[in-house]
Amino acid sequence: MNEKDKQNIETIIDYCNRIQEHVTYFESLNEDFFETPILQDACSLIIIQIGEHVNRLSDDFKLSHDTIPWKEIIAMRNVHTHHYEDVINEIVWETIQTDIPYLKQYLEQILYSNNKNQ
For the whole model, what pTM was predicted? Predict the structure, then answer.
């Protein structure tokens, strides 16, 4: 793994932690998420940032770790950035609850194995 990919992975993990902190701060259950525009906006911004950093990962890295739907992450970022009126909060909530924790765990394992091999 090159240094640029490593830095982007660390940043993505940081954003995954931040989105979870937002949800925890608001003590959000899904009803709260759907009724709290400030939380929706904060989570959307983090999804945009995750997508930005995924887009910066090298093609080699993404090809060698193809179990993650990189293109879909970038596509979600694009919707949040360019077509905000099309954001479906149910999908965002599911992403926050399922996909973000999985992405974080997956990337942490890559970093851990990379550090072990150095």
Answer: 0.91
